């Protein structure tokens, strides 16, 4: 009788636990067989992220025929070579991507659309040029998928994920040394004791990320443990930003070995350099354009990191090819960065022989140079 009761209790416990058991996780092989380089995905987490990474419905294509926007409208400095119809489509798309509630007046003076008095219009123009640069100069990172304004903004004026330099608290340095921003719980480093600002050294400055030595001390590698902790801080951020673990890029039996790393490591290598260049070329120069309430506690401008685009997905919007429907974002506008004569000529839609000679001085290709991965610093 007791055995029967014990059996019944055991069966009941198994059935109860089975009813509470969560769905199994999924795994994807990322590296060589037998190396354990697998990504583990939780279906529940993926379902939550899917809602945040769903692209909006595309607008119908516009005709390229007819007069150019630069011939019809005033002060068109980036998209002047689009037809009026294409230009209107781009403006509507940007409104949907960035300011669906405010509409056109988020960037434009309703009394004079050519006016540049609103800081949002000045910033939006540079962001257009930044998007074009990403899609042309950094195919090594974004591939043929490309990015649009929606990649970062997701229907909001300000992207969810940006960063400012943290203020150094009083007493951060003492007789015991420099705390280096440690032991201040922050989401940037997964609430760990690592330095809370892994972005300034690597996504603004060009400090060495690869600090693992390949020779015995004291010869060879002279990097400190503090530098290694900054590197780990950045890796924690990248893992969280992409929703992946270390084996997305690295072989855990030898983190520093490129030969056994998976292809995404090279993609990430380019992404770090892309973020650094964009912060320095586009974001920092816009500091004075932003009002005080849009700046950080130390007066610095918002800057981008991996999470700005990825927002928890290994590929932004899970690889949705939105940019393919917007060819104006896939090539650099002639107006961007040209001498004044050439810029005005393209805006009016008529290039003279002298203008063409000027244009011939520009680089013929925006292709990335071939990099020898084995000698990289990361």
In terms of topology, how is this protein built?
Elements: H1 2-20, E1 26-29, E2 38-41, H2 43-52, H3 69-72, H4 84-98, H5 119-137, H6 139-142, H7 149-153, E3 173-174, E4 177-178, H8 199-204, H9 225-242, H10 264-283, H11 306-310, H12 340-348, H13 353-359
Antiparallel strand pairs: 1-2, 3-4
**End-to-end C-alpha gap:** 67 Å
The CATH topology label of the largest domain is Photosynthetic Reaction Center, subunit C, domain 2
Strand content: under 5%
Give the mean pLDDT.
Answer: 80
Let me know the number of strands: 4
CATH architecture descriptor name of the largest domain: Orthogonal Bundle
**Uncertain spans, ≥5 residues at pLDDT below 50?**
336-378
CATH class of the largest domain: Mainly Alpha
From the alpha carbons, calculate the radius of gyration and give it in angstroms. 25 Å
Identify the overall geometry.
globular
CATH superfamily of the largest domain: Photosynthetic Reaction Center, subunit C, domain 2
Notes on the structure:
By secondary structure, the chain is mostly helical. Helices cover 37% and strands 3% of the residues. It has two domains: 58-160 and 314-348, Photosynthetic Reaction Center, subunit C, domain 2 (Orthogonal Bundle); 161-166 and 178-212 and 222-310, Photosynthetic Reaction Center, subunit C, domain 2. It has helices at 2-20, 43-52, 69-72, 84-98, 119-137, 139-142, 149-153, 199-204, 225-242, 264-283, 306-310, 340-348, 353-359, and strands at 26-29, 38-41, 173-174, 177-178. The longest helix is centred in the last third of the chain and has 20 residues, at 264-283. It starts with a helix and ends in a 19-residue tail after the last helix.
């Amino acid at each position: 009788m007791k055995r029967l009761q014990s059996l019944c209790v055991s069966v009941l416990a198994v059935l109860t636990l089975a009813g509470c058991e969560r769905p199994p996780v999924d795994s994807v092989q990322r590296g060589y067989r037998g190396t354990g380089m697998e990504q583990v995905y939780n279906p529940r987490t993926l379902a939550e992220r899917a809602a945040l990474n769903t692209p909006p419905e595309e607008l119908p294509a516009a005709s390229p025929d007819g007069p150019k926007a630069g011939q019809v409208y005033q002060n068109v400095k980036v998209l002047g070579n689009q037809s009026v119809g294409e230009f209107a489509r781009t403006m509507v798309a940007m409104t949907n991507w960035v300011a669906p509630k405010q509409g056109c007046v988020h960037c434009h003076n309703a009394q004079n659309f050519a006016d540049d008095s609103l800081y949002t219009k000045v910033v939006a123009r540079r962001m257009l040029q930044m998007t074009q640069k990403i899609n042309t100069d950094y195919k090594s990172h974004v591939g043929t998928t490309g990015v649009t304004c929606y990649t970062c903004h997701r229907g909001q004026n300000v992207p969810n994920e940006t960063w400012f330099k943290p203020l150094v608290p009083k007493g951060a340095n003492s007789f015991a040394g420099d705390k280096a921003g440690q032991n201040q719980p922050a989401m940037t480093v997964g609430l760990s004791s690592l330095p809370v600002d892994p972005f300034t050294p690597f996504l603004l400055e060009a400090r060495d990320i690869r600090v693992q030595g390949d020779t015995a001390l004291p010869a060879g590698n002279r990097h400190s443990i503090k530098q290694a902790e900054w590197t780990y801080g950045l890796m924690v951020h990248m893992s969280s930003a992409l929703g992946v673990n270390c084996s997305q890029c690295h072989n855990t039996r030898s983190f520093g070995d490129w030969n056994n790393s998976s292809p995404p490591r090279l993609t990430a290598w380019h992404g770090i350099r892309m973020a650094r260049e964009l912060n320095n070329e586009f974001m920092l120069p816009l500091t004075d354009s932003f009002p005080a309430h849009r700046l950080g506690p130390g007066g610095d401008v918002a800057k981008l990191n991996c999470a700005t685009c990825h927002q928890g997905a290994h590929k932004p919007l899970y690889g949705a090819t939105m940019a393919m429907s917007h060819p104006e974002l896939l090539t650099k506008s002639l107006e961007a960065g040209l001498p004044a004569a050439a810029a005005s000529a393209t805006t009016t839609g008529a290039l003279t022989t002298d203008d063409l000679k000027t244009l011939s001085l520009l680089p013929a290709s925006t292709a990335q140079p071939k990099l020898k991965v084995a000698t990289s610093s990361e």
